[in-house]
Write a structure and sequence with these properties.
The protein has 186 residues and is α/β, with parallel strands linked by helices. The chain has seven helices and ten strands.
Amino acid sequence: MPSALRLRLLGERLRAGAVIAYPTEAVYGLGCDPLNPWAVARILRLKRRPDRKGMILIAADEAQLEPFLGDIAEPMRQRMRASWPGPVTWVVPAAPTVPDWISGGRPTIAVRVTAHPIAAALCRAFGGALVSTSANRSGQPPARSALRVRALFGTELDDVVNGPLGGLQRPTTIIDARSGAVLRQG
């Protein structure tokens, strides 16, 4: 786990528009302030990924996600809460204020309350939800170590947080909250 000082500095860098890599439940992720269009655009360029795909947001708790969530029926919220913190990402209605660079222009957004201690600590240090997308070029396997992240991106990233992955062999499960359909099996 990064020291309290390192986490505070990472939080400051993220608020200033930095793009960092960090361990998550299964792979290294690239993260930034989801409301900073320049930081999100940097991630898209780094990944060589189209903006229409949208981004997953992770948080340390549900309250950090609240500004991004649209109208979600209480039974669905209870299902989400039962899986959090944990490796389940939910596609839910987006708040009307969610920018297209996060939603991909859709009325939905993908969100997760992470159980990974480093990822959650970064969200707390930042003070809110973060973009979390796999650390890789689009179509390539995601990085599973800090060394691999550095080999892929070199000095293109502002920082790489070293730490263990959460133990999953595959990226998190993604479920459509409205239909209950599993969009990606973890």
